[in-house]
Amino acid sequence: MPKIAKRLKIHLSTAFYWRHKVLFALRSLGFQTLKGIIESDETFFKESFKGREVIDRKAKKRGGRDEKRGISNLKIAVVIAQDRNGQAIAQKAGAGRVRAEEIAAVIGDYIAPSSLLCTDTATNYKKFAIIKDLKHETINLSKEGYVKKGIFHLQHVNNYHKRLKDWMRRFQGVATKYLDNYLYWFNFLQQSKKMATKERVNQMLLSACQKTNLITVKFLREV
Prior knowledge:
Elements: H1 2-8, H2 12-27, E1 37-46, E2 75-83, E3 88-95, H3 100-107, E4 116-120, H4 123-132, E5 135-139, H5 141-144, H6 155-168, H7 179-191, H8 197-208, H9 217-222
Parallel strand pairs: 1-4, 4-5
Antiparallel strand pairs: 1-2, 2-3
Helix pairs in contact: 2-7, 2-8, 3-4
């Protein structure tokens, strides 16, 4: 962001708010419907109040460990689903272990009824599949290995997790309130990765202009 602020001769905070005005507008387009075999799993990010004063807990150093180990309410669950055509959804679901209802809130409206859901053996996804009346294949890594029946696996969604985490490191921590913006940004980059860089930038800005954007700086400060 310092580079773009310097190039446009604007203040760093202005560049930050412009970034999120564009990303909020891009997010308004939503996601494409997932079809066929759909892999889904969650990944976790540390809860972050970056840029805000927090009075009910000690400040954390960048890269520091959470007070609680493993999955806790200090971790933000991000549900990711991807079909075999490359279409994907990635969005935060809540703090700690994700519930079936939270999974439904993230991906439930974007799954074609005839799809088959492929997940690990977690009971939250089993319950979600029942809620949406979806065909469901579970992968038990300890018993069945990484591929079941030669076709069912979670390799695509797990690779998505890795690419996402690698990409997010460049921001040196993202405030939880803005996390969905970065998740959608990454998803857009994945969907347009075959484009040349200049064409991709143009497409991103044009896409962000498809719907009216009423996001203001005041909103961004208060969100």
